[in-house]
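Lab channel / #folding
Pinned by the channel admin:
"Please post every new chain as: sequence first, then the structure tokens as a reply. Keep commentary short and put observations after the output so the thread stays searchable."

First post following the new format, from NK:
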Amino acid sequence: MYNLEYHQLEERIHNLLNLIEVYKFAIVTQNRKKAQHKIDIEHFISQELSSFSDVSMQRFSLPHYNYYQFLVKHSNHPIEELTIGNTIKYIEAIQRHLLDIHKTLSNFL
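Reply from TO:
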């Protein structure tokens, strides 16, 4: 059962990474739907936070806690669009943070 929770967390991290990558691509290509992609990320983060509020904090593992902290941080400070080069670096830093959480998670799997 516990492995199932880790696999579900891994899937959720991948989904968020994919949404962020689509948003980053929309910024680079100046896609007209980039605002919608940003809204999708914010909506996904809010859904994730609400799903975490249903679970007791005592059941969190280190990867769950790190992911939760990531969500709280980016819920309070959503991704902002800066100049193109700076925005890409900023988004890549966010992606690296998520990949670090995934790396910690992979130790548990």
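NK: The chain has four helices and no strands.
TO: also worth noting, The radius of gyration is 14 Å.
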